[in-house]
Amino acid sequence: MDALIIVDVQNDFCPGGALPVPSGDQIVPVLNEYMARAAQEGIPIVASQDWHPMHTEHFAQDGGRWPGHCLQDSWGAAFYENLRLPPSALIVRKGLSGHDDGYSAFEGTLADGRDLKHVLDDLGVTRVYVGGLATDYCVLQTVLGARRAGLETVWLRDASLPVEVNAGDGEQAERDMLAAGARACTLERFNPQRHRVSSGQ
Ligand code: VGL
Ligand code: ZN
Fold it and tell me: DSSP letters of 50-83?
């Protein structure tokens, strides 16, 4: 089974938000198309949300590096309004504790408390497609987390954008993902499979 993971497409990471990714909203129509195709194939869709408390070591005011963003239950933490998540989407929230950055969706949990890896295992998922915001932080760490979890991992190159605090961070993230064994793909080659014959059968 394949799964699609949409990382942090939230108001605060889009233009007008507290920590905007330049042109972050421009990947939304592309992600909508990925989701439509995944839904058509019956592929599970996971959406992560950065979900921080008021005080966290992740924020500059408490010793971290970021301006406040994605406060739990705020407008900024809500999914970007044009993102067409199906009702069946599995929502994973991360960065809740106040003591971690929570960059990877694999550090997140569902409302029922299960972590993402367990949910994917229960569904029989062995390959994930990952896109969203931002390429150089949460997409990167989610891709690396997927590789560490032993999953075949495909980065959606045309449905991710970097925040680029430093110029070149996006390209560095791309190199890091490929070095970790991820593959890159774009919409025209997206061919998710509900059932796959594993090699050797
Ligand atoms: C993110 C910076 C801080 C992200 C989250 O979603 O990529 N970046 N928190
Ligand atoms: Zn954050």
Answer: E-B-SS-TTBGGGTSSB-S--BTTSTTTSBPTT-
Residue 201 in this model has a pLDDT that exceeds 50? no
* Cut 0.90: pTM above it: yes
Closest CA relative to residue 140, chosen from 27, 148, 120: 148
If one residue of 6, 14, 51, 66 were mutated to test the ligand 1 pocket, choosing by the most ligand atoms within 8 A of its CB, it would be 66
Give the mean model confidence (pLDDT) for residues 37-66: 97
DSSP 160-192: EE---SSTTHHHHHHHHHHHTT-EEE-GGG---
Would the CB of 50 count as within 6 Å of ligand 1? Answer: yes
- Could you state, in order of their start, the residue ranges of all structural domains in the chain? 2-189
Q: Which two tokens stand for residue 79?
A: 């999914």
CA 30 to chain centre: 14
Structure tokens at 133: 């915001």
With a 6 Å cutoff on the Cβ, whether 59 touches ligand 1 is no
Q: Which helix (H) or strand (E) holds 130?
A: strand 127-133
Tokens of 51: 């979900």
The predicted-structure confidence for 169-193, as pLDDT tens digits, reads as follows: 999 999 999 999 999 999 999 999 9
For 2-189, CATH number out of 3.30.470.10, 3.40.30.10, 3.40.50.850, 3.30.1700.10 equals 3.40.50.850
